[in-house]
Amino acid sequence: ENSLREVPPSTMREVLVESPNVQWTDVGGLEDTKQELREAIEWPLKYGEIFDYSGVSPPKGIMLYGSPGTGKTLIAKAVATESEVNFISVKGPELLSKWVGESERGVREVFRKARQAAPCIVFFDEVDSIVPPRGRDLGSNVTERVVSQILTELDGLESLKDVVVIAATNRPDMVDPALMRPGRIDRILYIPNPDKDAREAILAIHTRGMPLAEDIDMDKLAEQMENYSGADIAATCQAASQIAIHEHLQKYSDPKEAMEHKDELKVDMDHFKRAFNKVKSSSYQKATIFWDKNKDSNSLIA
User: Fold this and answer.
1) pTM of the model
2) What are phi and psi of 188, to 5 degrees?
3) Residue-wise pLDDT tens digits, 244-254
4) Is the domain defined by 196-279 classed in CATH 3.40.50.1400?
């Protein structure tokens, strides 16, 4: 039994190739970011022959950074859907293993699958966990080997068409500078917390299909959600709906009766007011202010 425990796993996990069903219309706001990603990823993947003819080399990799919950994963999936390509999603910590060579093998397997599935987008979430600045690893040299392996794979993409890397992080300052060089991660895009117009767009997305009362004022709700991330807004909409359902079922506990009176079920402003007490802004104000100030700074790129 002890010897079985000491046998290293043959793979970190199965690398799944997905076909996401997230569209640009599911991403509220961020119009400038969407357009940049259309031009940098969607167009080269959809119109590769035109780019070859024009002699333009599209980016091999893009970094999305910003506070938690701002929609980085959603954006990456939308790019894949709109580009009509396959999608491989990897959470950084999942690649790390105590077994020597296993983490590097996990990286190689991700890129091997991407080559097989091309055209394909590889999405590394929490990328700072696997490519921290070398020399700072305090426990082992696992991450240093992983950084080297990822850089090797990215350099090898030069002769490979139709594979693009999107990396996401809350802390780009904690990513090895060697990753963020032209030819590897070519472009860095800041994903801010939504402004008022974007918050209203996100509200519209997450209240689609909800039975809303006539007193619902999207403009006022968007105003009250200052500093809320997209994830916070989604959670607030769900909480308001849940409160409305709770009230309806207290009145009509029998399932048949509840459905007969379903037209009485409406989500109103009071439900949202109570939802605000349940869902607070998860954004770290200091982090948000820091990235707002440094979003145009070249200091993030070596």
Assistant:
1) 0.80
2) -125, 125
3) 999 999 999 99
4) no
